[in-house]
Amino acid sequence: DWKMDSFANEQINLIREKVGDGKVLLALSGGVDSSVAAVLLSKAIGKQLTCVFVDHGLLRKNEGDEVENIFGPNGNYDLNFIRVNAQDRYYDKLKGVEEPEKKRKIIGEEFIRVFEEEAKKIGKVDFLVQGTIYPDVVESGLGGESAVIKSHHNVGGLPDYVDFKEIIEPLRDLFKDEVRKVGLELGLPEYLVFRQPFPGPGLGIRIIGEVTGEKVKIVQDADFIYREEVGNALKEYAEANNGADAPWKPDQYFAALTNMRSVGVMGDERTYDYAVALRAVQTIDFMTAESAQIPWEVLQKVMNRIINEVKGVNRVMFDLTSKPPGTIEFE
Ligand code: XMP
User: What Enzyme Commission number(s) appear in the record (predicted)?
Assistant: First the structure.
């Protein structure tokens, strides 16, 4: 695609001009936007760029390692990569906290603290990169609906906790599909480029009520199974239908852990375990959404696998709720 190709080259030149021999810092989340921004910066200025990736222990299964494999020392790009394993810090801070907004606030503040500490270690930073894309610019200007209903800790003003001269936002003029095109062009793997949206507070808002390391493990395993089976079913559909998307293809789907425990039976044993909720939605703008009609047999397979493979779960439910009145996430 010549347009995206020239976009990348143009940005790389602009970045070089702007940065000179300065030092650049980027908070890498592993999402599409910050990853594409990281690659552009890496191509432009190599090791003048430091990417800090905070693993808050609320990522999806294997995600931390995937990010490290791509951007770390054994990965494909020329940059400094710092992974901060902050799991225990987050779990400590979240201990006993049940209120959703409080959880979001703690997760957001802890991120700032961890990032600030890393920035101090690096010393003088000249530029800070943000993966802002065009819809973010518009949404924060208008005070987007979801920004009001739930505090989006990763959208907002300039961070004041790192000393820097200037901000760099190489994706500011792009829509999401354009960011993806640039990502593919720059050699990022498809699984990263076509990742589903994943909230900044991560699994912290997909575990209803108190977050613990044990619950994180449960929701990671259940979610992995769900995504694997739905992914397979989507692929099978496409293969059987000349590459067409299934009409039920969700725009976002994931498992959440309710704080409900109930009685069940496994073998001849009584169980008293958690219920997992499966969510799948179809939406255009994520402001309104309908539940996606995942085929019954796919749901049944997922249910069987979760019950058999994930310890601590004895019930699986499917959330039918539209948005509104529900939100897509649970908290
Ligand atoms: P809700 O739950 O508000 O979600 O219906 C709408 C979309 O926004 C995502 N979401 C977030 N994304 N930080 C983010 O980057 C957040 O704090 C956040 N909360 C919700 C959600 O996954 C869905 O795609």
Answer: 6.3.5.2
Tell me how far apart the alpha carbons of residues 159 and 161 are, in angstroms, rounded to a whole number: 6
Is 231 flagged in the annotation as binding? no
Phi, psi for 176 (deg, rounded to 5) = -55, -45
287 alpha carbon – ligand 1 mean position (Å): 10
- Residue 156 pLDDT exceeds 70: no
- Residue 81 Cα to chain centre, angstroms: 19
150 lines ligand 1 (CB under 6 A): yes
- The architecture in CATH of the region 2-195 reads 3-Layer(aba) Sandwich (3.40)
Which residues of the chain form CATH 3.30.300.10?
206-318
Closest ligand 1 atom to Cα of 205? 19
Output 192 or 160, whichever has higher pLDDT.
Answer: 192
Would the annotation count 34 as a binding residue? yes
Overall average pLDDT of the 44-68 stretch: 98
- Please give the sequence-ordered ranges of beta strands (E in DSSP) within the chain, or none if there are none: 24-28, 49-55, 80-85, 127-129, 166-168, 252-266, 269-282, 290-291, 313-318
**Residue 147 pLDDT grade (very low, low, confident, very high; cuts 50, 70, 90):** very low
Q: Is the CB of 323 under 6 A from ligand 1?
A: yes
Q: ipTM for the complex?
A: 0.99
100 pocket-lining for ligand 1 (C-beta < 6 Å): no
Virtual torsion, Cα 206, 208, 213, 215, nearest 10 deg = -90
Q: Is there a binding annotation on residue 31?
A: yes
The arrangement of secondary structure in 206-318, i.e. its CATH architecture, is 2-Layer Sandwich (3.30)
